Amino acid sequence: MVTNTGTFGRTGVHDYVLVRASAIVMTLYVIFLVGFLVITPDLTFDAWKAFFGNLGVKVFTLLTLISLMVHAWIGLWQVLTDYVKPTGLRIVLQFLVNVAVLAYVISGFAILWGV
Known about the structure:
CATH topology: 3 helical TM bundles of succinate and fumarate reductases
Strand content: under 5%
Number of strands: 0
Subcellular location: Cell inner membrane
Largest sheet: none
CATH class: Mainly Alpha
Number of helices: 4
Number of domains: 1
Binding site for a ubiquinone: 83
Helix content: over 70%
Structural class: mainly alpha
Pfam family, one: Sdh_cyt
GO molecular function, one term: electron transfer activity
Shape: elongated
CATH architecture: Up-down Bundle
Binding site for heme: 71
Low-confidence stretches: none
Distance between the termini: 49 Å
Radius of gyration: 18 Å
């Protein structure tokens, strides 16, 4: 039996579904933002603040941030495992990517919810 030690229990199908689902969420968010920009004739700071003050927009934005994290995490893991052959360098790069992506989500959460 072949064991897959590089994915920590994930399979290729699982990664495929996660990447596609996160892409759908991000696409819907872009459409949502473009729709807001199109229907808002006078885009001021107050309109923008009121838009992001809505609980639904905050939740959708947080879901999109998490989707972006999942998408970047899996995508960059695949790129690094395909193109960076020295194991030590690949581990360091994957660690740095994971720290950066996690920092982006944490800072996005703090900015969004005003923590």
